[in-house]
Amino acid sequence: MVGAMWVVEVVPLARGLHTAESLTYFTTLEVAPGDIVRVPLRKRTVYALVNEVRPLAEAKAELRHAPYTLRRLTAKTSQRWLPEPFLSALREEARFLAAPLGVVLRLALAQPLLELAPAIATHLTASPSPAPSSPLHGADQVLLLQEHADPRLQEYHTLVREVFASHQSVTLLCPTIEEAERVFAALTRHTPTHTFLLHSSQPKRRLRDTLLRVLQEPHPVAVVATPSFLPIPRADIGLLIIEGESSPAYIAPARPHLHFARLAERYGLFAGWRVIRADVPLSVESYHRWLTHNVGSLRTITARISFPAPAEVVSLRRNPTDATPQPKTALQKERTVLLSPRLEEELRRLTTSGGRAVLFAARRGLAPLTVCDDCGASIQCGACGATLVTHREGTRSFFLCHACGAIRPATEACSSCGSWRLSSLGVATARVARLLSALFPETMVAVIDSDHTPNRDDAYRVLERFYETSPAILVGTQKLLPLLQKPVHLSAIVSFDTILSLPSWNAEERALRIGLALRERTKRVTIVQTRLPTDTPLFQALADGFLRPWYRHTLELRERLGYPPFAVLVRLTLTGSRQRIQQTAASLEPHLPSAYFTGRSRLFPLRGSRALQHFYLRVPSNEWPNETLAQFLATLPPSVTVEVNPSSILA
Predict the structure, then answer these.
(1) Which of 104, 244, 314, 636 could disulfide-pair with 340, CB 3.0 to 4.6 Å?
(2) Cα dihedral sign for 174, 178, 179, 185?
(3) Residue 173 to residue 188: CA distance in whole angstroms
(4) How do beta strands 488-493 and 522-530 pair?
(5) pLDDT in tens, 364-388
C-alpha cells in the first residue's frame, strides 16, 4: 500500500558490531524478508539483510516503551537474491562461532557482490532455491579426494563433464586467487565457453559482466571462485568441490575467523548437492570423519602418497665427537646455523649446473627472536608484549613488532638485567637471503614475504624474474606457496623447527602441509632441516609420504589433550586497563561452566596502560554449539572477544 508505514527488522552486514543480533527501523519503502538494504548505523551507513517486516500499527505498543528512538530506513539496494540454503548454512556457522549472524554474513560476502546486488537480483533466471528444514547427511553426500594437484585437476575435468551431462552446474571453490587462476586455466583447456572465474582482484566491470554471464547462461556452467563468491544464485548447481580443503587461507583473518570450507560444506548439504573435499594432505578432521564413516571417499585413500622427487630429512645437530673445527668468522657461524652440508652441496650443484631453488623460512625479517646471553630474557614489545623481530634497512638494524607495528632501535640493552650481550636466534627470510648472497654472489637471490613484496603485483614481478633466470634462488614465507605454480629443481625448509614452535594446536599439520606442498613442486630433491629427533611419524610422512601412522599418532594425541576434532576450544580475550580486566575477570569467572573452564593466561601488556588476558574453555565436540553457554557469551561486554577454535593458542 502506497504511503503505508512499516517496521523493519534487519541484520546489519557490519564488521566490528557488538550489539543485538538484529536492529529495527521504520520505512515507507516496499521491502520483504531477504532484501538487501542500506541503513544508518551510528555515524555510518551499512548494508543490511531484511529479516522481518511488520505494519507500524502492530508494533506501536511495543515501540512506545522501547528505550531507543526508531530511525528511518531510506534506501533499498535490491530484492531477495541470496539462496535460502546459504542463509541456513550461515545461521549454523554463526551458532558454531557464537557470533552475530550479520558479522558472519558480512565476512562471507565479497564487497562486489553487495555492490552488484541489484544487477544480480534483476537477472536471476530462477528464484533462489528453498532450504530443507535440516542439512542432508550421509557418507555418500560428502566425499574426500586425496591426490596430487595434477591428478586432482584431471579428476575435476571428468567430474565437470559428468555433471554437465546431467544438466547441472558446478561450483569449484579455491582458497586463494592464485589457486583459483590455476584451476580455471586447467578447466578452460577443455570447456572454455562454460567455465567462469570470480575473485576480488578482477576489475569491477569484468566482474559484473562475468556475474551476469553466469546467471544468464542457459547451458550448465562451472564457476571457479574464491570463498566470498560462494553464494552465486544459480538454481541448477549439483556439485560443490572444495579445492585445497585443509588450506589455512580458508580461515578469515578477521574475527570471528569464519572457516569458509566448513561454511561451504554446510551450504552444499542444505542445498542437497554432492560435496567433494580435496587436498594433499587432507585435514586431520576430514581424515577422522572418514575413519568414523561420517564421510565417504571419491577414490581409495591410500596409506602412502608418491611424489615426483625424493625428500631428505637432515639433522642440524652437531655430534659432540665431531672433529670439525669450530667456525671462526661471522659468515662461517651463519653457515653452520642455517645450512647443513647436504643443503649447501645441493645449492652449489645448482649454481654450477643451472636451475632454480626455493627455500622456505617461516618468519620474515632477520631473526624472529633476540635473547640476552646473561639472563636469558627475550626482547619483547613494550606496547603489546609480543616477541620483537630483528629487521635491517640498509646498514641500520631495528626491532619490529609484527603484532602492532611498533619499531625500536636494535642498539638497546636488555631491559631485565641491563646487559648488552644480545644474540639473534631463529631463522627468517632476510637472514637466509643475506647468507645465500654472500655464499653465491653470482646467483640471483630474491625474497617473497610481506616486507619485500607487500602486494600481489610485487610478488608476481619477483616470481617472473626468478623463472626467467638460471641459476636462481627464491626465499619465501607461506605467502610464496600459492604463487609457486611451476616446478623447481630444489626445495628446502631451512628450519622445520620454527614452524613447529608456533603456539598452535595444529602446528604439526600446517608444517606437514608446507613440506608436502614443496615436494609437489620439486623435480630433484626436497631437503627438510631440523634439530629435532627424526624418527617420528611426522618426519616419516615428510620423507616417504607414509601418512597413515602420522594421522593415527596425531588423532591419539589430540584426543588425549582434548583438541579438535574431539573438543571445541573457546578463547575469551579481555582487553582494557589492568583494573578493568581484573574487575571483568572477577565477574566473568564464576559464571563459566566448571566442566569446560580450563584456566586463564597471564596478563599481556598492550600499548600505554592497556593489557589483555585470555580465558580458555574446552567443550566436547558433541556438546557444541552449546545454547546456554552461547546465550551467556552474547551478554559479555565489547571488551571481551570470543573466538572458537583459534589457530593460535596465545596470539
Answers:
(1) 314
(2) positive
(3) 16
(4) parallel
(5) 755 555 555 555 455 666 654 556 6
Mean pLDDT within 197-214: 92
- Element spanning 177, H or E: helix 177-188
For 265-339, where are the E strands, in sequence order? 274-278, 296-297, 311-315
Using an 8 Å Cβ cutoff, are 536 and 296 in contact? no
Give the max Cα distance, the chain: 94
Please provide the size of the chain in residues. Answer: 651
Average pLDDT over all residues of the chain: 86
Cβ atoms of 581 and 574 within 8 Å: the answer is yes
CB 283 within 8 A of CB 246: yes
Local confidence band at 232 (pLDDT 50, 70, 90 cut-offs): confident
> Does pLDDT of 344 surpass 70?
yes
Determine the Cα–Cα distance for residues 304 and 306; give it in Å rounded to an integer: 7
List phi, psi (to 5°) of 118.
-60, -40
Question: Can you name the residues that pair with 644 across neighbouring β-strands?
Answer: 570
3-state class of 297 per DSSP? strand
CA pair distance 465, 476, nearest whole angstrom? 15
Determine the Cα–Cα distance for residues 641 and 575; give it in Å rounded to an integer: 8
- Rounded to a whole number of angstroms, the CA Rg of the chain reads 27
Nearest to 233 by CA among 250, 221, 243: 221
CA distance 204 to 218: 24
Contact 272, 237 (CB under 8 A): no
Query: How far from 227 is each of 56, 130, 230, 260, CA to CA, in Å?
Result: 39, 22, 5, 6
Distances (CA, A) of 388 to 394, 415, 498, 587: 19, 13, 15, 34
Q: In b/e form, how buried is each residue of 182-192, taking b as 16+ CB within 10 angstroms?
A: bbbebbbeebe
Give the span between the Cα atoms of 489 and 77, in whole angstroms.
53
**Residue 250: CB partners within 8 Å, gap ≥ 6?**
175, 227, 244, 259, 260, 261
What pTM does this model have? 0.88
pLDDT digits (tens, 9 = 90+) for 517-541: 999 999 999 999 988 888 999 999 9
Quick check: 403 pLDDT over 60? no
How far apart are alpha carbons 453 and 459 in whole angstroms? 5
Separation between Cα atoms, residue 566 and residue 289, nearest integer Å = 11
Cell readout for 229 is: 563468491
Question: Residue 252: exposed, middle, or buried by beta-carbon count in 10 A (0-12, 13-18, 19+)?
Answer: middle
Q: Which residue has the cell 609420504?
A: 545
| Amino acid (one-letter) located at 424 | S
The three-point CA angle 311-467-359 to 5° equals: 35
Contacts of 615 (CB under 8 A, 6+ apart): 571, 572, 573, 574, 585, 588, 589, 592, 597, 599, 600, 601
Residue 61: strand, helix, or coil: helix
Count other C-beta atoms under 10 Å from residue 284's C-beta.
21
**597 Rama sector, left if φ>0, alpha if ψ -120 to 50, beta otherwise:** beta
| Owner of C-alpha cell 548494508 | 47
Measured CA to CA, the distance from residue 427 to residue 505 in angstroms comes to 21
